[in-house]
């Protein structure tokens, strides 16, 4: 029964990651349509775009406090429907204040969603006694590809935002809510730890967590560079056609999915430290290839390398935080998750400013160096996953809700 519950819990959490990937992709890939619908000026648009990750960071901080009283599965069960409804609200409004309200709700709830999903993923990985975190993030990548494809279809057929979003929300909302019945968490606390749960935040040393926070930030600077600048770089710097310039991000998403789909096997075989080091070197090499590329196809090779390299870092950073603070992993993950949004906020403006002031080729060297700096902090990824299960893969006792 325990094994079956773990399998059901793993599947239901993977479904939540997939739904979130679809939802987020539908939002970010339709930003031009959102701007047109609400008449948001180019000067005001960056304010809206920055507000979402800032509020998501707030949502992650709030989640840290909330999970001291209720389990992460409860937060996730209610945060995911709110995110979906907020997406629908973005598409259904007509006034700027309505867009601001819907995006504000989206940001706060997506912070709670990201934090609680990764808390549960780390908990389940502990219960399994082996690496499974990359599989959850592979489901997110698959959802991102599906969401981006649906967004492309909506744009291609000139569908309104509400027409594009409504069928997705109608299908995914009940699916996610019903699937939440099978959420499972590994039993992380004995009776002594439960009595000290409210004081768990004090047991997380920010000094110890900081290397992982920096790695998370660097990884998202790299990711946001690809998502925001790959098309412009290929077209303006490497001289590709407008149509071809859309390919690198799709290639990046597909290689991210493939890398995460097989990444857990690499972690089990070689350990988290080796996998993160390899991913960092490959991602840095990818940025280097992009920076020196003489044509569009070589540039796309660099973006392919980036997808395969960066994809392993974020899931393993969450897993490492769980191993580093096994008695307060929820607190550690909520704090670590904030640096997801810091990297997202910093990355795109940083590359844009350097590109305008210097050159976009030179700008690509900055995320290259930052990603390569992950090697300095590789030891923070701790022991191999098999060791924290006692070397066995037999599931532990679980807490089912």
Automatic annotation (TrEMBL):
Keyword annotations for this protein, in alphabetical order, are: Membrane, Transmembrane, Transmembrane helix
Question: Is Heme there in the keyword field?
Answer: no
Does this UniProt record's set of keywords contain DNA-binding? no
Q: Which Gene3D superfamilies match?
A: MFS general substrate transporter like domains
Q: Which CDD domains match?
A: MFS_MosC_like
Q: What sections of the protein cross the membrane?
A: 12-31, 43-62, 74-93, 99-120, 132-153, 165-184, 204-222, 249-267, 279-297, 303-321, 333-352
Q: Which PANTHER family match?
A: BYPASS OF STOP CODON PROTEIN 6 (PTHR23514), INNER MEMBRANE PROTEIN YBJJ (PTHR23514:SF13)
Protein name, please?
Answer: MFS transporter
């Amino acid at each position: 029964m325990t094994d079956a519950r773990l399998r059901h819990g793993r599947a239901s959490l993977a479904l939540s990651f997939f739904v979130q990937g679809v939802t987020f992709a539908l939002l970010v890939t339709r930003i031009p349509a959102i701007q047109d619908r609400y008449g948001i000026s180019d000067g005001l648009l960056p304010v809206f775009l920055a507000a979402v990750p800032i509020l998501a960071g707030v949502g992650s901080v709030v989640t840290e406090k909330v999970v001291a009283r209720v389990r992460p599965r409860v937060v996730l069960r209610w945060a995911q429907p709110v995110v979906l409804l907020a997406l629908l609200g973005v598409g259904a409004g007509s006034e700027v204040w309505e867009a601001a309200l819907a995006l504000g709700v989206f940001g706060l709830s997506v912070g709670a969603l990201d934090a609680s999903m990764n808390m549960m993923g780390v908990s389940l990985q502990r219960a399994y006694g082996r690496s499974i975190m990359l599989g959850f993030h592979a489901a997110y990548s698959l959802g991102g590809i599906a969401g981006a494809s649906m967004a492309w279809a909506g744009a291609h057929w000139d569908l309104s935002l509400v027409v594009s979003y409504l069928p997705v929300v109608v299908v995914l909302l009940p699916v996610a809510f019903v699937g939440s019945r099978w959420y499972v968490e590994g039993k992380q606390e004995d009776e002594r730890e439960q009595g000290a749960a409210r004081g768990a935040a004090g047991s997380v040393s920010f000094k110890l967590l900081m290397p992982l926070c920096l790695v998370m930030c660097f990884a998202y600077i790299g990711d946001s560079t690809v998502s925001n600048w790959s098309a412009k770089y290929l077209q303006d710097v490497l001289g590709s056609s407008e149509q071809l310039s859309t390919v690198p991000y799709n290639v990046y998403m597909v290689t991210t999915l493939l890398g995460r789909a097989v990444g857990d096997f690499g972690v089990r075989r070689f350990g988290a430290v080796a996998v993160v080091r390899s991913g960092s070197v490959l991602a840095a090499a990818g940025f280097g290839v992009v920076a020196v590329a003489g044509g569009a196809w070589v540039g796309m090779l660099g973006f392919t390398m980036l997808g395969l390299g960066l994809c392993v870092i974020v899931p393993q950073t969450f897993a490492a935080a769980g191993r580093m603070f096994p008695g307060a992993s929820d607190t550690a993950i909520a704090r670590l998750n904030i640096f997801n949004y810091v990297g997202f906020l910093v990355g795109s403006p940083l590359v844009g400013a350097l590109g305008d002031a210097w050159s976009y080729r030179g700008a690509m060297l900055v995320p290259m160096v930052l990603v390569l700096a992950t090697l300095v902090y590789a030891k923070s990824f701790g022991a191999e996953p098999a060791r924290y299960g006692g070397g066995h893969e037999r599931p532990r006792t679980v807490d089912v809700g």
